[in-house]
Amino acid sequence: MVKRRYIAALAAGIASVGPVLWTDAPVAQTLTERLSQKSQKAGQSKDRLAVESRELVYDKDKNTVSAVGNAVLYYQGRVLEADRVTYDREHNRVYAEGNAKMTEANGQVVYGSRFELTDDFKDGFIDSLRIDTIDKTHFVAPRGERTGGETTVFERGTYTACDACKEDPTKPPLWQVRAKRIIHKNEERTVYYEDATLEFYGVPIAYIPYFSAPDSTVKRKSGFLAPRYIASSAIGYGVSVPYFWALAPNYDLTLTPTFLTRQGVLGDVEWRHRLINGSYTVRASGIFQADPGAFLEPPYGAGNRDFRGAVESRGRFLINDKWVWGWDVSGSTDKWYYSNYKFRGYQNDSALSAFGNTIGFRESTSTIYLTGQGERSWFDARAYYFRGLSYADWQKVQPVVHPVVDYDRRFTPAFIGGELSVNANLTSLTRSQTDYQSLVQENGVTPGRYLFPLAYDPLSRTNPRLYDTCAPGFYTPDKCYVRGPAGTYTRMTADVSWRRTFIDPLGQTWTPFLSARGDVLFKSPDLSPPFNQYLPNFFDTNDDVVFRGMPAVGVTYRYPFVADTSWGTHVIEPIGQIIARPNETNIGKIVNEDAQSLVFDDTNLFSTTKFSGYDRMEGGTRANIGAQYTFTMLNGGYISSLFGQSYQIAGLNSYANPDLTRTGLNSGLDTARSDYVSRIQIAPTSNIVLTARSRFNEEDFALKRVEMQAQSTFGDLTTSIIYARYAPQPELGIYTKREGVSTSVRYNITPNWYVTGSVLLDLSRHAAERFYQIQGYQASNPVGVGAISLGAGYHDECTTFSVVYQNSAKGSLAEGTKERVQTVLLRLELRTLGGASYSYNQSTIQTSDGITHY
Question: Ranges for the LptD C-terminal domain (predicted)?
Fold first, then answer.
């Protein structure tokens, strides 16, 4: 049996290593003294060296000391392991052979067949070198050299951020960089590559004479970022070359010139600054276009502009642990700039709506805000500026909100129990042009505003149509309604409410509630010609101040019946609610800005008011009744359903008495007995969920509205399908049904590879027909496909790759192109090296299709 022996250098370090058995005092003294003296000469504190091995061999002839058998050396936070470690006293060199491994103080692991190092481990050579960093990146070379413990040179080395294949470690990784020399400088935290080749699965695909990149420990460092490649009929071919300038740990600058073959150089500058209590960014971009004629002329494009650009800024700052303020603002020379040049900050592009009047919808929202939150209170104040970014948006009808303020506070009153809440809202806004909406039809089509409204001819179809609205001669309540009046309007609202739930001995639950609310509106209408002067046709513009109040008292009743069976648990719960209030007053005098969205369904059947905002309130005495059934299966599945109806028992029906926006009409609530609403959700297992929401006519049970969704996950397959159908709403100027299907699927072929696809179908063909009408010609067979997307991708610990094909009518309509836009997007990201992407944008006819990237 070989006796285990320990050698320690300094008495102060013995306890950290373990017991020490001296085999040859002079040898141990020489070894440790040399290392200690070297550290002291460098001005360092006295270092400690410890050696652990099965056997210690001293060769006086060669003047060496060898630790043999599972040798381990501890020094300056480094750990050197090998089958045999030899110290050459004469040349101050350390040799490690056989399964050599050195673990740095930062956790980095260096492997080699043979180490030849100085006695402080900082300099030397390593054969068959492999380095695994703590960030899971890997360097390999036949031979490497360490200098000063700071620089490592890999001769004929390779680098990758991919882990080795578990089944076959000798198999080439997904990607690697092979170079004649790889130089890693720890102090600079930079890796330099000379005569480099990028390989995928061992196959070279790109040669780069020289480049450098931050090592895996760097989160931010000055240098060039991955380029972006561009292809567009409107701006030509080009490349963006971003340069990131890390000026300080808390602020930086990114310069991104984009060189375009058709339009010149697009400049982009972004400044980011982090402070103690927050951070902010400022970004500016612009271009002097070499060929403005590549874009459509107004009103469909910016073909008349030489210079185009934008400025954006975002910030968020903490005042204390409860209050925060900030801003998110943007401005551009024209509303097509973002879509034509597709900046990464442009996030307001919504999906194509196959079911609504508006086909494409884009906007830029600028806001400044102040928010505070306590344990049971909340405050939010915001100002808004909306900028429509589609050709179909008329900026003058967009309101400027200055501001909207919300306050909410909850209490638990000791004398009556329950919950007492106080809500307050202040909304003030200005609009320069009245937003009219047409109600009549012209040859089966709702008429729209022409480019020059003063020259509008209702029977002419030669001029391009821009906006869905009325035109001169049509500004009367029987032909138009007002979505938003011109002028300045300020409303203040205060609401106090209380509720408490009681459970009687039979298990019935009773929730009485009461509330009191008051509103005051200050209005200053703008009656300037040529369009605002028609406002008196729709509401009284003489009242400068309008008051409104609404007390309410009511109770909600529930009585759940529970039955346990061998299949699961059944719960049947009748629900009834009655609310007594006076009639709503000053309908139409209180301008409706925030309560125009009204969808009557299961989610608001038992709401005390079904209006979505403060500008309208439900009045009269109303009863809401329904029944809910829930079945919980033993396997975790469930079935949940609800069916109910609302009744106007007494007083004025608020939903049958429209305001300027005609909100409430065709809602299913505008009759004494409302339409029926239902919901059913079935989840037989955790992998399948089916949901359907419907509204049926209260007289003949005709289907007025239906939304159905199915989601499923079976192993690697995930699917979703949504179907919606909405009946016409002629009282709101919508004379056609809206019907569509949206489907999506994702299949994981392997843990890393996947394919995806989605289709949006306009079953009513409303979107396609609308598109051709706007373009000024008829189509014999309009396409009913709203959008198609097909894609495939790969993702693992070191690589992200995806390719996506998109075909959408939305881009054509919003950007004024004559044909559908088809786009292919290619994205590749290599961890620690960056990424690159490419996009090809095609349309059948050469138009202003904009840039799509990358």
Answer: 307-753
